[in-house]
């Protein structure tokens, strides 16, 4: 098959889990964060990059569509994605506004890519994305000479390209890998060496991947030093499994594992894997084996056994490296003995939904005691009643809540689960194959694998 479209489109509206268990060998889809970056860097490289394991989720498809509207073609051949880059100055003006859908990563990274171009662009998104803060990326880019106009701080964005960006030393004030990567992309076009730093540890996929494309970025403490005007070369690359997708199966296996659960070929980037240590701190039996750091990213296997969990105080320094895993962690906390406290996590309010609020409302509906604060929450673990909950269009909340149906007294129905396509097409089929009792399951496509 050779096709330019996503071969994994599917539509699901609600998901009911009524008990069951989890076990076996699980392969999760390709990492979303890495897929976005590889696509963007490949677009700036000279030649055709070939990528295995690229995420089939809607978010990464939004990045591919955006690149196509900028003149960068791609094609699928079975599971291999080819992206035809034309070099750093090979993008062309889009004919219309670029729709980033639900994808904050697409929009924020594009800000850095489009700021130095010789043309203007408009970026739009869906309702959720249109409420997300964009000054955090626009303001530091302006320090380099970018001309970006936000709409009351949010999308739509207008980017009037400026091909004469200045190299700069920039300290961003949010611990955001998206913002850091946007600045790095812009710095690739600047007139000299730039230095970009963020407070605290954030995922470093950009810093690991760019050298593969021939760009010698280097780390200096929390800062990334980016040489200006380097030519990138096409690469062959395999995207590791997404640890943020694995997170739901890790928690499911802790709660309802009936045999060993192995999650194989999964990325173990230290800026992403804090959930493992947090669950171990809650009493989970989890073992990790790192197989290789092939192509710059650590990859390995996570083995999980059913475990009785106790509540935990989440250390604030683990908030950034676990930022996408809080929905899964909240579910573990809801089933743990005692209280779990989360602080210093205000960023959760600016994700695909306000994750503190959405999670609190849903957990209370299922009979769990939850208190919220401006930057965190307290969850008292106990029995889960079951019931119907809304995921507020947030893919990670949808998947996390469905896991509760494995252990609840009555089934858990999550409504609005079509958003799972954002990052994990085939999630519910994979969960069913692993042993969950899934009701009303019209989905047929699987992008992961259980053996
Ligand atoms: C991402 C970084 C994180 C994360 C998001 C993906 C990335 O966002 O929540 O899902 O790929 O760089 P922030 O950079 O806003 O923390």
Plain-language structure description:
This protein is of the alpha+beta class and 451 residues long. 27% of the residues lie in helices and 28% in strands. Strands 1, 4, 5, 6, 15 and 16 form a six-stranded mixed sheet that branches. The protein has a five-stranded mixed sheet with strand order 18-19-17-3-26, covered by helices on one side. It has a four-stranded mixed sheet with strand order 23-24-2-25. The protein is globular. The two termini are 25 Å apart. Mean pLDDT is 94; it is low at 1-12. Shikimate-3-phosphate binds at residues 33, 36, 105, 176-178, 181, 203, 323-324, 347.
What are the low-pLDDT stretches, counting only 5+ consecutive residues below 50?
1-12
The shape, in one word, is globular
Radius of gyration: 21 Å
Distance from first to last alpha carbon: 25 Å
What is the top-level CATH class of the largest domain?
Alpha Beta
What share of the residues lie within helices?
25-40%
* Count of DSSP strands: 26
User: What count of structural domains?
Assistant: 2
CATH topology of the largest domain: UDP-n-acetylglucosamine1-carboxyvinyl-transferase, Chain
For the residues shown, what is the average pLDDT? 94
Tell me the strand percentage band: 25-35%
CATH architectural group of the largest domain: Alpha-beta prism
Number of helices: 12
Largest sheet: 6 strands, mixed
User: CATH H-level name of the largest domain... which superfamily?
Assistant: Enolpyruvate transferase domain
What are the distinct ligands in this entry? shikimate-3-phosphate
């Amino acid at each position: 098959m050779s096709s330019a479209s996503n071969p994994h489109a599917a539509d699901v509206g609600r998901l009911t889990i009524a008990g069951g268990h989890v076990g076996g060998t699980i392969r999760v889809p390709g990492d979303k964060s890495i897929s976005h970056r590889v696509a963007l860097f490949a677009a700036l490289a000279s030649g055709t990059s070939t990528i295995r394991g690229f995420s089939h989720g809607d978010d990464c498809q939004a990045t591919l569509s955006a690149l196509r509207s900028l003149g960068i073609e791609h094609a699928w051949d079975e599971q291999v994605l080819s992206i035809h880059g034309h070099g750093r100055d090979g993008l062309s003006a889009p004919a219309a506004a670029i729709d980033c859908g639900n994808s904050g990563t697409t929009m924020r990274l594009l800000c850095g890519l489009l700021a130095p171009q010789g043309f203007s662009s408009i970026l739009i998104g869906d309702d959720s994305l249109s409420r997300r803060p964009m000054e955090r990326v626009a303001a530091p880019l302006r320090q380099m000479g970018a001309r970006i106009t936000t709409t009351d701080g949010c999308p739509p964005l207008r980017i009037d390209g400026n091909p004469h960006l200045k190299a700069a030393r920039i300290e961003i004030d949010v611990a955001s890998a998206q913002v850091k990567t946007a600045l790095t992309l812009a710095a690739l076009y600047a007139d000299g060496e730039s230095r970009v730093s963020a407070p605290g540890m954030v995922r470093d996929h950009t810093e690991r991947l760019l050298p593969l494309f021939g760009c010698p970025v280097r780390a200096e403490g929390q800062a990334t030093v980016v040489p200006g005007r380097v030519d990138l070369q096409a690469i062959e690359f395999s995207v590791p499994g997404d640890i943020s997708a694995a997170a739901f199966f890790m928690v499911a296996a802790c709660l309802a594992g009936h045999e060993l659960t192995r999650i194989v070929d999964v990325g173990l980037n230290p800026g992403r894997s804090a959930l493992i240590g947090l669950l171990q701190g809650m009493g989970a039996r989890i073992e990790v084996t790192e197989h290789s750091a092939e192509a710059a990213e650590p990859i390995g296997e996570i083995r999980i056994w059913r475990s009785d969990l106790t509540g935990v105080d989440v250390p604030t320094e683990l908030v950034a490296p676990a930022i996408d895993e809080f929905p899964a962690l909240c579910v573990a906390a809801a089933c743990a003995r005692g209280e779990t406290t989360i602080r210093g996590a205000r960023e959760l309010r600016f994700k695909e939904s306000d994750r503190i609020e959405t999670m609190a409302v849903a957990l209370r509906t299922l009979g769990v005691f939850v208190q919220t604060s401006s930057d965190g929450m307290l969850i008292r673990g106990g029995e889960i009643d079951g019931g119907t909950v809304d995921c507020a269009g947030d893919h990670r909340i949808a998947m996390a809540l469905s896991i509760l149906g494995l252990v609840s007294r009555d089934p858990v129905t999550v409504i609005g689960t079509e958003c799972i396509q954002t990052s994990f097409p085939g999630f519910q089929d994979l969960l069913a194959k692993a042993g969950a009792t899934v009701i009303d399951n019209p989905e047929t496509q699987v992008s992961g694998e259980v053996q």
